[in-house]
Amino acid sequence: MRTRITTVGVLAALALTLTACSSEEEPTVDNKPSSISAEDKAKAREAAGLPPEPDAAARKAFLDALNAIDSRIIKPGKEDQAVSRGLNQCSSIKSSPGDREKLAQLALERFTVTTRLPEIATQETGERILDAVHKHLCPDF
Question: Which of 70, 90, 98, 122 is the most exposed place for a label (fewest CB within 10 A)?
């Protein structure tokens, strides 16, 4: 019986933790909205090797480029997620600039093409995603 109670307790704690982490606001220790300035966020992004958030024109161009490859790459209503994944791909470009084959495979995995759209999970598709990321989100990398 003790094992069951422990398991139930662990599952309850996990559920509470996941619920707390799913908040749209950035949680802080005291559960108040974060007061981190945009400037500090930009500095943190730079320190992490990520480019700045794209402006509206670059964002639209990137999303349009992904849709031109295949409209299913961006999940419905998940444009922010696609941009976030693109920005994360930029960090891979920065850390492995000469390994195009590896970067293309990472792009397929990062955008979940390999699992959701296996029929288009080719090296060519990965390279096209990689090119869209590089051109629109981190051309200086």
Answer: 98
